[in-house]
Amino acid sequence: MIVNWKPRQIVLTSAFVSALFLMPDDGKAAEWKVGMSSPQIKELQQLLKEKGFFTYPTATGYFGTITEQAIKAFQASVRLPVTGIVDDATYAKLKGTVVYSTSEMKIGSRGNNVKVLQQNLKLLGYFRYPEITGYYGVITQEAVKKFQRNNGLSATGVADARTVQLIQNAVNKQSNKTLQANALKIGSRGTEVSKLQQKLKQLGYFTYPEITDYYGTFTAEAVRKFQEKNKLPVTGVADSATLVKINEAIASSEPQPSAPQPSAPKAGIYLTTGSTGSKVKEVQTKLKQLGYFTYSQITGYYGTITANAVKSFQRDVNLKATGVVDTETYERLMGKAPQRKLDVIELVADASQLLGKPYVWGGETPQVGFDCSGFIVYLFKKQGISLPRTVAAIWNVGTPVSSPSVGDIVFFETSRSGPSHAGIYIGNRQFVHSGSSTGVTISSLDNSYWKARYLGAKRY
User: How confident is the model at residue 75 (pLDDT cuts 50, 70, 90)?
Assistant: First the structure.
């Protein structure tokens, strides 16, 4: 079958067009526009890249603002209505079945294409008139001349196809730099970082116990793992393409409301998605104390946030991460289950081998370095004892003692109200810890600095 396009004829097979645009029953072509995502859009971006209009590093398959701007520039260059939406005519010309128009914009030209040109020149700092007029006058001409001079073109003041394409390339490059600057990366802070961490935790990539507003090494590593799994450039930077994929993964992982819930056993504790009541409140309260439950309120309803918090706790205490609070999980959470007995001699010996290791925020391995809680968690894990990842959470799960013995954890109030630093007591009024200015070192409880900030000791 031949599809006839007027006033010119483009030859496309009906099967290809139907598959590509998903023709509805009325025969009108469907349209591609902002917000859509598919493998065909990835092909579209590649075609735009080949013609110099799409300058983002990779074809993502997501139709965002960069793709929209590239389509508008292409449509202007081939004298199509500048809509930013891909219809059949736009796609046919993009495939190269129709040659580019040689029409030029110059003094006296009018219309939407002139508006696009003026807008792009304004973004690049060449067009300084306060309004976008759609009329090609001397101000537009001078702006075009300046751009041509700065880019090695003949300064004619006429916006031919080559000039229009180079202007659009410059706009796309600038937009890409802006997007990269606005991407979330190491050092970023704020609510957007918190939202990202929550989503990555829901997907099982972010394993840090707390949701913070800081983009550190844990967040970057979680992003890298997600990117690798989803065949994205593995940068550790949450750019727009990565964020889109994360949102798609979240949407596809949402449980169906009608999904049947497992039946509870006749005896013991069994809380799962959909459970309500005082036991759920008790579990949420304890999870919040330990830094796993980050929702602002204790609701008494067991939803996805509670299930994800339970999964994180279960992973940290070496239980199967089901997201269901059974009797064993409940007892471990409430501190009622017996822990493996601590071998304090091995603990102190292991700690001594790490003296001099550097302080690294978020660090929890000898190869990288340690922050104060990472140091403690690492050593106790070697003993088969799982502790929460933050100082505050470790404080919440320990048993208070009036005076420390070897192997107990000693706590200090340094940077904020409540426990914010900790170390392992090794006897003789000394403790080993990872200090921010010293790395792993031994300090005395009688030192004036630590003595003034001592909160107490707890046993595990």
Answer: confident
401 phi and psi, to 5 degrees?
Answer: -130, 150
Q: What is the mean pLDDT of the chain?
A: 80
Per-residue confidence at 40, pLDDT binned at 50, 70, 90?
confident
Alpha helices in 23-153 (DSSP H): 39-50, 65-77, 88-94, 112-123, 138-150
Interatomic CA distance for residues 17 and 14, integer angstroms = 5
Burial (CB < 10 A; 0-12, 13-18, 19+), residue 86, is buried
Q: What is the pLDDT of residue 179?
A: 55
**Angle formed by the axes of helices 191-202 and 217-229, nearest 10°:** 50
Is the Cβ–Cβ distance between 119 and 132 less than 8 Å? yes
Helices (H) and strands (E) counted in the chain, each on its own, are: 17, 10
First-to-last alpha carbon distance for the chain, in angstroms, is: 77
Task: Report the alpha-carbon distance of residue 323 to residue 444 in Å, rounded.
Answer: 42
**pLDDT value, residue 369:** 92
- Exposed, middle or buried by CB within 10 Å (0-12, 13-18, 19+), for 245? buried
Q: Which two tokens stand for residue 255?
A: 């449980």
- Name the token pair of 88: 């059949």
Q: In residues, how long is the chain? A: 460
**Amino acid identity for residue 390 in this structure:** T
Enclosing H/E stretch for 435:
strand 430-435
User: Which residue in 380, 376, 387 sits closest to 440, CA to CA?
Assistant: 376
Using alpha carbons, select from 254, 229, 230 the residue that is nearest to residue 62. Answer: 230
Which residues are CB-contacts of 107 (< 8 A; sequence separation ≥ 6)? Answer: 136, 137, 138, 141, 157
Cα–Cα distance measured from residue 132 to residue 333, given in angstroms and rounded to the nearest whole number: 63
Q: What is the pLDDT of residue 181?
A: 58
CA 356 to chain centre: 34
Q: Tell me phi and psi for residue 51, to 5 degrees.
A: -95, 5
3-state SS, residue 264: coil
Q: Which residues are catalytic?
A: 372, 421, 433
Residues 188 and 162: beta-carbon distance below 8 Å: no
